[in-house]
Amino acid sequence: MLNRQGKVVLITGATGGIGLAVATGLAKQGMTTVIVGRDKARGLAAVEAIRNQSGSGAVELMLADLSSLKDLRRLAAEFTATHTRLDVLINNVGGLYGKRWETVDGIEGTLALNHLGPFLLTQLLLPMLRTSAPSRIVNIASEGHKAAKTVDFDSFSANNWKRGFRIYSQTKLCNVLFTYELARRLNGTGITVNTLHPGIVDTALFRRFISERFGLIGGFIGRATEFIVRNVAYRTRKFDTLEEAAACPVYLASSGEVSAITGKYFNSDKSMIKSSPASYDAELSRHVWEVSTEMVGLLPHEQIMDVSVAGTRAV
Question: What is the pTM of this model?
Answer without folding.
Answer: 0.87
